[in-house]
Amino acid sequence: MGIIETDQLTYRYGSRRGIDAVGLRVHEGALYGFLGPNGAGKTTTIRVLLGFLHGSTGMARVFGLDCWTQSARIKQDLGYVPGDLRLWPWLTGQSALNMVGAIRGRELATPGRQLADMFELDLSVKVRRMSKGMRQKLGLILAMAHDPKLLILDEPSSGLDPLMQDRLLEYLRTVARRGRTVFFSSHTLSEVERLCDRLAIIRQGRIVFDGPLDDLRRQAGHEVRLRWNPAREIPADFDRSIPAGVRLVSRDGLDVHLHSSVEVVTLLPWLGTLPIDDLALGRPDLESIFRAFYQTDAQSAENGGRR
Amino acid sequence: MNLGLIIRALREMLPTTALIAGMLGLISGLLAYALPAVQARFLQRSFIPPGLQQMRNVMLGVDSATGGVADIAFSIAWSHPVVLILLCAQAIIVCTRVPAGEIERGTIDILMGLPVSRRQLFLSESLAWVVSGGLVLGAIYGGSFIGAMFIRPEYRPDWSNLAMVLVNLGLVYALVGALALLAATLSDRRGRAVLFVLVIAVGSLLVNFLQLLWEPAKHVSFLSFLHYYRPIGMLQKGAWPWRDLAVLGSGTLVAWVASGIILSRRPLTTL
């Protein structure tokens, strides 16, 4: 059984798309990245999982429990940091811990202080006097102090300095090693790449990829950059000679950039026939793969705008 | 019920409740101290300006030139516009906090991310509303009691009759609070919810005031919740106004249940 399971999960904001037929399965102990551009549907998915919104159709379960009808039970073992974290301004860090502890029916002062030491947060400061980074740290402490089985973090590192980001990621790795599950939503791939072993990419409300990072790299094919021998001219019909599964990305003088979705062994014989001076062949980095998703989104938006 | 939620709600509204309860206690005390003497002098006068007489009659719903000093004076004190406005303001402030206030402030996500059901949230908020109501109503009664300690004994009201008025006023507070709760569950903006209840409250005050001055207002006076709050009858006769209590009570119940149903079904997220 997955810790998080959704199937054909759909939510619409009136006539506006929220998420469409989202299917996810997150297993226990996973460090699961949930990636997508702004407005892709990450927060909507999380809000359905937390029972803030009732999915229009489809199924959403956490710990095998229904996200809408059994939401309160689910959240006993869940810690959540919202993307746009706001806290009650009249609270201090300590009183926030006491209040959340009272709501959870657990003593959170001691583990909260340990986490505050780790994040270097002064718990005596009132929320209204805290900087964005301090509030973010407090939000993380409140979500993690009860050592939940599942952490749902919606862009948790926003506002944190690089040192604190490292500490957060290290802490999340530690909790995952203890069998806790982390569902980590972000729009920056580097963060997910550093932390997660599996990820889903959501675009325009639909899951366009779900699997291990290596699968994403494999699906992305190969980048081929070659430099033509200066002694030979690039034939005029070069574009037409490119085999199926290989696409010309750009050509700048003697430099040719290709993208291949075929196996390397299939590609090499064709490359061997070309008068190449230099060749670089490899998997594209994740950033460029993800950027391609972003660009597609931006193009769609642009086309939509023109229509 | 969730103890943490109750503590949160009480703690959040304690400063406002303390302030309003303090003001109401002070005003009630001053009115209880000053009005009986004013009423006694009023009854001794051979000529009373018709405008003033009419205003008082409108406010009380009876002829204020007749009847006991204490009954008239405490009726005026307990239906004084400042008292009613402060009481309504307290109900509106407390009952528009959840969910509209939390959504507007952006704290609903963190609140609903905790292991609380919507039912628990609703019941905790309702309890906090009742507790705050008890505090402000207690302040009015306490203020009257303290103020009356410094007046002549014959000017003091029958305290059990005044307790009836307290119950009636409590139901006015409850109805305004329930309407505020309903508006807050229907809206994502606290300002809109406040405006909605303010329109009803001000409309009620206005209709109640106009009904004895202007004939057409009489036909719609039953729509004003103050139509069901007449302290003078209780103070003079010592009889429970069952019909008025039933109307206010059922209005409160309907609005409260509707709020609970809406809250259990509506999306709860920041905007």
Q: Please, could you describe this protein's structure?
A:
The complex is a heterodimer of chains A (307) and B (271). Chain A has 11 helices and 14 strands. Chain A has a 6-stranded mixed beta sheet with strand order 6-7-8-3-9-10, with helices on both faces. In chain A, α4 crosses α5. The mean pLDDT of chain A is 91. Chain A has 307 residues and is of the alpha/beta class. With 271 residues, chain B is an all-alpha fold. In chain B, α3 runs antiparallel to α11 and α7 packs antiparallel against α8. In chain B, 49% of the residues are buried. Helix content of chain B is 77%, strand content 0%. Chain B starts with a helix and ends in a 6-residue tail after the last helix. The mean pLDDT of chain B is 91. The radius of gyration of chain B is 20 Å and the shape is elongated. At the A-B interface, α2, β6, α3 and α5 of A face α1 and α6 of B.
Beta strand % of chain A: 25-35%
Summarize the helix and strand pattern of chain A as letters.
EEEHEEHEHHHEHEHEEHEHEEHEH
SSE arrangement of chain B, N to C:
HHHHHHHHHHHH
- Structural class by helix and strand composition of chain B: mainly alpha
Largest interface: A-B, 32 and 26 residues
Query: How many beta strands in the DSSP annotation of chain B?
Result: 0
How much of the sequence lies in strands of chain B comes to under 5%
What's the overall average pLDDT of chain B, rounded?
A: 91
List the helices and strands and how they pair.
The complex is a heterodimer of chains A (307) and B (271).
Chain A: E1 4-13, E2 16-26, E3 31-35, H1 42-49, E4 57-62, E5 65-66, H2 71-74, E6 78-81, H3 93-104, H4 109-119, H5 132-144, E7 150-154, H6 162-177, E8 181-186, H7 189-195, E9 198-203, E10 206-212, H8 213-219, E11 222-228, H9 238-241, E12 246-252, E13 255-260, H10 264-272, E14 276-282, H11 286-306
Chain B: H1 3-44, H2 50-60, H3 69-78, H4 81-95, H5 97-105, H6 108-112, H7 118-148, H8 159-186, H9 190-210, H10 215-219, H11 231-237, H12 242-265
Helix pairs in contact in B: 1-3, 1-4, 1-7, 3-11, 4-7, 4-8, 4-9, 5-8, 7-8, 8-9, 8-11, 8-12
